[in-house]
Design brief:
2% helix; 2 domains; SH3 type barrels; mainly beta; 11-stranded antiparallel sheet; 3-stranded antiparallel sheet
């Protein structure tokens, strides 16, 4: 496994983090001819899609994409390679990037603080497994983010992983289960009024004011019609 990150690191996914692919590396299947433009980070103690990804630094959300399937595809090109992702304008020419997320819980224009949850770790886009690709650009050019992260004296508290919870359906007409977090995804079954579910993760997406609840792999329902029990 890769290098263990400093315990003074100024951000990121919960749990113990390991650097699996360094900035500038060309060893990954998709980086043999193009140097890696960030660092890949993953927990060393059974990472899951419930692991929250935190903002390294404060700023304004520049881009937020959360509608892609959380499944790696090595044929993708361009921005599609990023999968579900968030980019934050941190000011003074700096932009931070968080790629391959499972879910995204911020939107373009949001003001975020360092340590704030942006989404959950995933394997969407051009990805071979569960991890976070973190990038930092300065003046439009990608730079190695580790000196910026490990050089900070203060440490942003790590937010605990998402804790699943039980809920019941409050829609008397029933609640549609969709294949993804949004009304653009097809519904394939309906839960009856009063049905109990376990919410494994939460995500933002069109068609639901409160967001979407993941109740199983590839199964999402609107949080607007769920009540925690």
């Amino acid at each position: 496994m890769g290098k263990k990150l400093s315990n003074k690191i100024h951000f990121l996914a919960c749990g113990k983090e390991w650097l699996n692919l360094a900035f500038g590396a060309t060893s990954a299947p998709y980086s043999k001819t193009s140097p890696h433009k960030g660092v890949d980070i993953v927990r060393d103690d059974k990472p899951t899609e419930s692991d929250r990804v935190l903002a390294a630094f404060a700023g304004t959300v520049k881009t937020a994409v959360g509608s892609k399937p959380n499944k790696g595809d090595m044929t993708l090109k361009g921005v599609a390679q990023y999968g579900n992702y968030v980019e934050i304008d941190c000011g003074n020419g700096y932009v931070t990037a968080y790629y391959h997320l499972a879910t995204v819980c911020v939107k373009k224009g949001d003001k975020v603080k360092a340590g704030q949850t942006l989404g959950t770790m995933g394997t969407s886009g051009l990805s071979t497994g569960l991890h976070l690709h973190f990038g930092l650009s300065k003046g439009g050019k990608w730079v190695d983010p580790l000196p910026y992260l490990e050089g900070k004296s203060s440490v942003v508290p790590v937010v605990p992983a998402f804790k699943s919870y039980a809920a019941k359906v409050t829609a008397k007409a029933g609640l549609n289960v969709r294949k993804g977090a949004g009304t653009s995804y097809a519904s394939f079954k309906t839960l009856k009024y009063g049905a109990k579910v376990t919410v494994l993760a939460e995500a933002v997406g069109p068609g639901s004011l409160k967001g979407w609840a993941k109740i199983a792999e590839g199964q999402y329902v609107s949080l607007d019609f769920l009540e925690k029990i």
